[in-house]
Amino acid sequence: MFQSQDLFGVPIYLAHVDLQSQLLEDLKSEEWHRFPASNGWGTTDKHLLDNPKHKDLRNIVDEHASNYVYRTLQVNHAVHQLDMLNTWGVKHNTGDWAQKHDHVNSMISGIIYLSSEHDSGKLILHKQLQWNNIFPRTTFIEFTGFSASTAEEWNYQPRTGDIVIFPSHVEHSVTKNLNANDRYCVAFNYFLRGTSTVGDHSTLTL
Ligand SMILES: [Fe+2]
């Protein structure tokens, strides 16, 4: 008998919501601009979910961000309050994709998918090159299969109604949309506010 425990991992939150089709129609009706890299579209509004028009979507996102922070991570609710910073829609036409990037000026990020099928583009989360939980890059160790401890990246094929939440510093990218239909999602960033105290010598207000 033996057991192993994955310690000091990166917490990734996954959930699925049954979305009303009206939410997608409301997103489609937004104003869109082509990204400078010409690989996708973003909404002009970068505080999309502050608009009362998207109130139902806002409530869903808030509920899951709260689950992630207070139930999964067990952040102290009495000290730290979640603050939604910015939210924007992303549209990928057939052939569109997203380069590797992270979200700065943010602690918690996530994506809710309003239209995505089996080949609409995978979300890839990348491990930091210097993430030294085991085997630093001085050596290249070969593996026979996937394990969360040793993987260099994690691929996820999102479907309509999926929501993924992760730490904002985790680099991520999106593979090409191979589907004939446009892929729609809404991305969001949160910060933890509040004043934390360490012993009797240090406090910090965020
Ligand atoms: Fe992103």
Describe it.
The chain has 206 residues and is mainly beta. The chain has one domain (13-122, 155-205): Sandwich (Jelly Rolls). The protein has helices at 21-28, 55-72, and strands at residues 13-16, 32-34, 41-43, 81-92, 98-101, 108-115, 123-126, 153-156, 162-167, 172-174, 183-193, 195-198, 202-205. The strands form three sheets. It has a seven-stranded antiparallel β-sheet with strand order 1-9-6-11-4-3-2. A hairpin with a 6-residue loop joins β2 and β3. The protein is globular, with a radius of gyration of 19 Å. 24% of the residues are buried. The mean pLDDT is 96. Bound molecules: fe (ii) ion (FE2). Fe (ii) ion binds next to loops.
Quickly list its features.
single chain; 206 residues; mainly beta; Jelly Rolls; 2 helices; 13 strands; 34% strand; globular; binds fe (ii) ion
